[in-house]
Amino acid sequence: MRVQKRISRVFPKFYQHALALVFAVNEINEDPKILPNVTLGFHIYDNFFDAMMTYRTTLDVFCKSHSFSPNYKCDAHKNPIVAIGGLGSDTTFRMDNILSLYKIPQFMYGTYYPEESNPGRVPSFYRMVPTEAPQYMGIVWLLQHFGWTWVGLFVVDGAMGEDFLQTLEYYFSHNEICSAFTQRIPEGANLKFSNEFYKIASEIYSRFMKDIANVFILYGENLTFTWLMTVFYFLGDPHKGTTTLLGKVWIMTTQVDFMLSGLQRHMDLQQFDGAISFTIHSKDPPGFIEFLQNIQPYKNKADGFLKDFWEQAFDCSFPNPGIPTENSCMEEESLESLPDALFEMHMTCHGYSIYNAVYSVAHALHVIDTSRSSHKAILPSKRFELQHLKPWQLYPFLQGISFNNSVGEAVFFNDEREVEGGFDIVNMVTTSNRTFQRVKAGSVHPKDLGGKEFIINEDIIMWHRTFKQMLPVSVCNNYCPPGYQKKKKEGYKFCCYDCEPCPDGKISNKIDMSSCFSCPEDQYSNMKRDGCIPKIKSYLSYEEPLGISLASLAISLSLIKLWVLGIFLKYRDTPIVKANNRALTYTLLVSLMLCFLSSLLFLGKPGKVTCLLRQPSFGIVFSVAVSCLLAKTTIVSLAFMATKPGSRMKKWVGKNVSNSIVLSCSLIQASICTMWLATSPPFPDLDTFSVTEEIILQCNEGSTAMFYCVLGYMGLLAIASFVVAFLARKLPDSFNEAKFITFSMLAFCSVWVSFLPTYLSTRGKYMVAVEIFSILASSAGLLGCIFSPKCYIILFRPELNSKEQIRKR
Predict the structure, then answer these.
(1) Looking at the DSSP assignment, which residues form a beta bridge with residue 323?
(2) 62, 235, 425, 631: which could form a disulfide with 661 (CB 3.0–4.6 Å)?
(3) CA nearest neighbour of 653 among 554, 585, 566, 581
(4) Which of 74-78, 135-139, 215-219 is predicted least confidently?
């Protein structure tokens, strides 16, 4: 087994790809369970990172000569049955141009361009890497998890970069994420220092230094990181040979690897400290690290790559006869001493893909070797040997292959001839000695695994040291604090916005909320509009000062009214009491006392009974009182009309008329109240809207129309009483009450006319207080205007309370 030497310069990290192939082949050849008595061989070729050399080296696989003829078989040369490669999509498809002519299966272990790798167009492809779709969603989920909405994009120029941008921008627009800028990196970036290099490098470095974004996504090829490191190295601080430390978070896709060339061994990786890398899931096969530890140029002399790798990796030279050497390679060097950016002792994702590709071929050959009799259509010869297998005969066996590799993970191809698998989310922690450590911080799975498509453990992530382990923030503007909502900023992307305070009655209790929301009905927003406060239940109670005052006033006026009634009962036989119908006077006094007491129904917590009795009792007793006044003035007017000679009004003067007026007027009001209670009675209710900070416990009137009918009828009686009293105010009589009733009704009407606008403009317990005050004021007006003059005569001027005074008038 010998490896062909085809290169003069090696990127040290790529050498592990060849070693992964060698390790897998050695394992298979030493395993008696797989392909016993069969030895696998291989050839390794390099394309110098050049398109034309890809064709050259691919043709060299089939025919060793100075001239090449595609699709021509050289009899002296044994063709391979499979090919593994290449690392980049451009290399892969250029290889396919030649390999497809010979129908040789091709295992691709690096990046690929989805449109070009359509299985219908390229039937020879077997992809050892999963599709990129989960990676796109993984990037979006990662940004959403940390709240990063303003992200810079560094993308390799070309078809792959454009496809990445189109796909990612689609996901961004549907998940409220914006790209701060898009900076393209030259495709196939090399390290030639030219004017074009400095122009592009300066533009990239300017983006990096000046943009407010703290998160950058890097999508490129395998050498993109190497090229970007050169940009930061020379434009950061070329005199000191270090980059300017600036806290940023780099998110790198699977195609990008932490990798330096031998010439870059002294460059500092700390600018990329804390980077998040999406990598194809991989593990270390047992024995692989020990295999690498035994790699030495003096032990592996058949390896034509090893000396070139060793010289570049360790910056030394192997002695040539007759040529003096300043820095000779010694036997003490080991791969373990190399920085990770030059060479990793753990198997990389590309090495793991190559390892699985070799085992896929071996298992397919093993199936062929152990089941030839069941596949006569494909393998017709009875004396068939694996050495005579044609490449195209391997296809059906590869498609159905399924096995567990040495680390216990299943390997199989889906219908699109790609290996099923997910992506690891790796935190890259750099150190001062130009090495780094990969820390697995999460994963992305292509299928639903019980709601665990995306897993991230942010507690173990080490961010760039300038963040001091605080969560980095990458937004277009500062977050809107609680109490504010986002407002679109004209002329900017939707991720850029202004913050405006929440309107009255609404809150936002989290940062960066799109809109404020209303508090529950039993709560209201605080002054900062960032929380809700429970509303206080409010009603006019007996315990508060206003309730105590109104209750005391009502009871006091009732006692005064009771005292007046006592005076009138004591002096019931005096002329002033007998005048104008003594029974009506007693009825009026009792009804007014009930008016004062009815106001107490409006105090306290509303209940079913109190709500039913409040308005009807108030309306009925007031109607009785006003009806008594109407009867009094009517009787006075009729009495004087009956004194005229030949008048027919004498028959209308008497108690029956007055009683009829009181009863009929009161019954009408009672009928209205009965209809109200029967159709839509009042009931206890909660008012959560009228007063911001309170829940008002109130009596819902049920039917507002019936409520105003009660008030309207009472007003109609009051106006009628006022008109009749006004017309009778000048009739001669010693104890004519018409004047007093006129003033009392004027006061009564004034109170209730002013009551309506005041009642409608207030809310809560103050609305109830207005109604109580109106009841007490109007009742007190009737009491004062009508009975205070009579009480004054009875108590202080008894000489006027006599028949002689009546005769004089």
Answers:
(1) 320
(2) 631
(3) 581
(4) 74-78
Helix axes 765-796, 738-761, angle to 10 degrees: 170
Please report the DSSP string for 238-262 in residue order: TTTTBPPP---EEEE-TT------G
What is the reported pTM? 0.70
Q: Where does residue 176 fall: left (phi above 0), alpha (psi -120 to 50 degrees), or beta otherwise?
A: left
Structure tokens at 266: 């002294």
Q: What angle do CA 184, 190, 194 make, to 5 degrees?
A: 90
- Strand-pairing partners, residue 779, are none
Domains (ranges, CATH) in the chain?
12-129+285-321+329-412 (3.40.50.2300), 133-280+422-467 (3.40.50.2300), 484-534 (no CATH), 545-808 (1.20.1070.10)
Over the stretch 728-741, which tens digit does the pLDDT of each residue have? Answer: 766 655 456 777 77
Please give the mean pLDDT across all residues of the chain.
Answer: 82
Torsion of CA 141, 144, 146, 149, to 10 degrees: 130
| Element of type H or E holding 307 | helix 306-314
pLDDT digit string (tens) for 238-271? 444 444 556 789 999 988 888 777 667 777 788 8
Please give the Cα distance from 634 to 653 (Å, whole number). 9
- In 3-state terms the chain splits into helix, strand, coil percentages (rounded to 5) of 45, 15, 40
Return d(Cα 702, Cα 141) in angstroms, integer.
Answer: 55
* DSSP states along 454-474: EEE-GGG----GGGTTSPP--
Strand partners, 440: 426
Name the amino acid, one letter, at 519: C
486 three-class SS: strand
Are the CB atoms for 10 and 51 separated by under 8 Å? no
